[in-house]
Amino acid sequence: MKLFGRRAAASGAGKNQVSVSHLLTLDLTRSNALATMLASSRASPVVETADLLAGMYIYGWERLSKYWDDQDQDRVEELLRKMCRISPQRWSFWIELYDKKRRQKDPRLRSLLLLRRPQKDARMDAPARHSAELTALFKQAEEIAPFRDNSEGRNIPILTSECVLLCMVRHGKSEISRKLAASGMNLPRLERDALSSRRSRRE
User: What pTM did the predictor assign?
Assistant: First the structure.
């Protein structure tokens, strides 16, 4: 089973820098790719925490929804849409588009990139970098990640969606953190899944 999709360098690293600070599980890699597309769709030079939360929702809601009671699902989905600052129309567009591509078995979502508007500025072709807040969030996730990969004598943390979601909740200074914490989330269950090295390492 593939545990992770690709190596992820620290935010802002140059393309010639070979050292990485963490790896991403396959599901988080895909969520991050969606977040980058969402940022690009509004011509943003950086990927915000809200973009990653939206990517995690669009790609893995079935996996993450267990942290809220069933009767709260509709309310939480509406809350997430507002937190991610996506209109109902665009929200439905991205979800329907992703679901279509997933049914077509396009795991890396490369064809979604064709939907981006052509940019006259060649700089927009470069991958969007993470915002300072999102970079700090990934750093926090590195510190608490229970999974590690030994590569070239280094112990590299492997970040999961649960681990990153937990850091979003714990990042008390942000509006997203406060709203997630007040959403009725089952935080003890999320902490158990995010921090335990005994749970199943799913894609």
Answer: 0.75
CATH architecture of 4-9+18-114+126-195: Orthogonal Bundle (1.10)
Instruction: Note whether 38 and 55 are within 8 A (CB).
Output: yes
Query: What ranges in the chain are assigned the alpha helix state H?
Result: 26-41, 49-64, 73-83, 88-103, 132-144, 161-170, 175-181, 187-195
Name the residue among 93, 105, 130, 99 with its Cα closest to residue 12. 130
Length of the chain: 203
Residue 46 in 3-state DSSP?
Answer: strand
pLDDT digits (tens, 9 = 90+) for 158-178: 999 999 999 999 876 788 999
